[in-house]
């Protein structure tokens, strides 16, 4: 894969003009863009459609989690937006993930369907407080294996987990990794960070990168610098 195609830029904004300007600025320099609950809640499917019309692959990060029939319906509705990737919560269970995988297969151009395992904002103590025993690493692995058995294409994970998941789940299971910081960028509120090159070395297929690009004085130059670093 061309190194720049690994980069999905997180458009975390409720301002459609800003999102579109960033997208236009970065076209050809990155693999795609990620739109999530912030864009979707503020701007709706029309906002997503406007971003999609830029012609770049879109990661629709809505993290569906509901009963199987409802998630299947949501995935079917999302297909109208023609995303390259979309996601669900693995903790919704095998039947829910199978329903999502089956619904995604109804598209002429099937999107990659990913599972969120354990949110990286949760600690071992947080898991215990919601009744999940064991540590986050084993819970992430358990849910990623369940996602694979349920027919999903990959998971969103931290780079910290990528190496073990790559070893357990094989070369074709997609690992999509946020929390990326080049060594020249501020860490912001991210704590468990890796550089783009480290994340790829650990097994990441796609890197979700927001502020190091979108918050830079020159977003296009920042994206190009990251792609150049990945090429080395
Ligand atoms: O600006 P930054 O590079 O930190 O943005 C990272 C993006 O990835 C944000 O959209 C954030 O919501 C998302 N994300 C994350 N950690 C996760 C899952 C998603 O940072 N575990």
Give the secondary structure arrangement, pairings included.
Elements: E1 7-10, H1 16-26, E2 32-36, H2 37-52, E3 58-64, H3 68-79, E4 85-89, H4 94-104, E5 112-116, H5 124-129, H6 136-149, E6 154-156, H7 159-169, E7 174-177, H8 196-201, E8 206-209, H9 211-214, H10 219-231
Parallel strand pairs: 1-2, 1-8, 2-3, 3-4, 4-5, 5-6, 6-7, 7-8
In round numbers, the mean pLDDT is 97
Net shape: globular
Q: Classify the beta-strand content into a percent band.
A: 15-25%
Termini Cα gap: 14 Å
Low-pLDDT windows of residues: none
Provide the list of bound ligands, each named once. Answer: cytidine-5'-monophosphate
Total DSSP E strands: 8
Strand arrangement, major sheet: 1-2-3-4-5-6-7-8
Alpha-beta content class: alpha/beta
Largest sheet: 8 strands, parallel, barrel
Would you list the SSEs in sequence order as H and E? EHEHEHEHEHHEHEHEHH
Portion of residues within helices? 40-55%
Number of helices: 10
Q: What does the radius of gyration come to?
A: 17 Å
Structure description:
With 232 residues, the protein is of the alpha/beta class. The protein is built from ten helices and eight strands. It has helices at residues 16-26, 37-52, 68-79, 94-104, 124-129, 136-149, 159-169, 196-201, 211-214, 219-231, and strands spanning 7-10, 32-36, 58-64, 85-89, 112-116, 154-156, 174-177, 206-209. Strands 1-2-3-4-5-6-7-8 form an eight-stranded parallel β-barrel, surrounded by five helices. The longest helix has 16 residues, at 37-52. The radius of gyration is 17 Å and the shape is globular. The two termini are 14 Å apart. 42% of the residues are buried. The mean pLDDT is 97. It binds cytidine-5'-monophosphate.
């Amino acid at each position: 894969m061309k190194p720049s195609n690994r980069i999905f830029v997180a458009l975390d904004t409720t301002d459609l003009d800003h999102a579109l300007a960033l997208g236009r600025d970065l076209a050809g320099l990155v693999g795609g863009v990620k739109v999530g609950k912030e864009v979707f809640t503020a701007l709706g499917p029309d906002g997503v459609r406007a971003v999609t019309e830029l012609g770049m692959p879109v990661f629709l990060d809505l993290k569906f989690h509901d009963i199987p029939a409802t998630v299947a319906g949501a995935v079917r509705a999302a297909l109208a937006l023609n995303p390259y990737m979309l996601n669900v919560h693995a903790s919704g269970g095998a039947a829910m993930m199978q329903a999502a995988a089956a619904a995604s297969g109804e598209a002429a151009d099937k999107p990659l369907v990913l599972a969120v395992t354990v949110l990286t904002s949760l600690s071992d103590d947080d898991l215990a407080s919601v009744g999940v025993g064991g540590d986050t690493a084993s819970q992430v692995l358990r849910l990623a294996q369940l996602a694979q058995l349920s027919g999903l294409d990959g998971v969103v994970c931290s780079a910290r987990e990528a190496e073990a998941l790559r070893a357990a789940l094989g070369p074709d299971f997609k690992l999509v990794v946020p929390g990326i910081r080049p060594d020249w960028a501020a860490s912001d509120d991210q704590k468990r960070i890796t550089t783009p090159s480290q994340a790829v070395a650990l097994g990441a297929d796609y890197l979700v990168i927001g502020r190091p690009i979108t918050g830079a004085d020159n977003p296009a130059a920042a994206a190009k610098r990251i792609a150049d670093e990945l090429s080395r």
